[in-house]
Amino acid sequence: MTTIAEPRAPRAAVRRKGPNLEKWGWIYMRVSGVLLIVLIFGHLFINLLTGTGIHQIDFAFVAGKFATPFWQWWDVLMLWLALIHGANGMRTIVNDYVGHEATRKVLVWALWLSAGFLIVLGTLVVFTFDPCIGVTSDSSLWEMCQSVAN
Hints:
The chain is mostly helical and 150 residues long. The chain has one domain: Fumarate reductase/succinate dehydrogenase, transmembrane subunit (3 helical TM bundles of succinate and fumarate reductases). The chain contains five helices and no strands. Helix 1 packs across helix 3.
């Protein structure tokens, strides 16, 4: 009779006092995944299937979307959820496959720092976007920016 060798034993998980972060991470992945499906397909529908489709997407289209708080919050929510969802997924992979504790901690910290940096940077771009910064008189946006300024 042939026997199958036992799989590598996982690290012993020590139950700590306080909130179960793994449970909340698991719940977050499910909830954010469902919300991301709605947000992404809404984004794709508006950008690709309405109006003239992909031909309508240019600087003015993006400027028009970022001029309304609804689309600003739509895109920021999509950005936040996607970055945290992705970082949490990568954290799970690092926890599963990196055996050296110090290396694992460095990688997890790097994941969260990079996700945090991109969240801050993306949020600043969305909420401080001004299509008239740096527009000169020979730009196609000159007339629009002049009418907004007056």
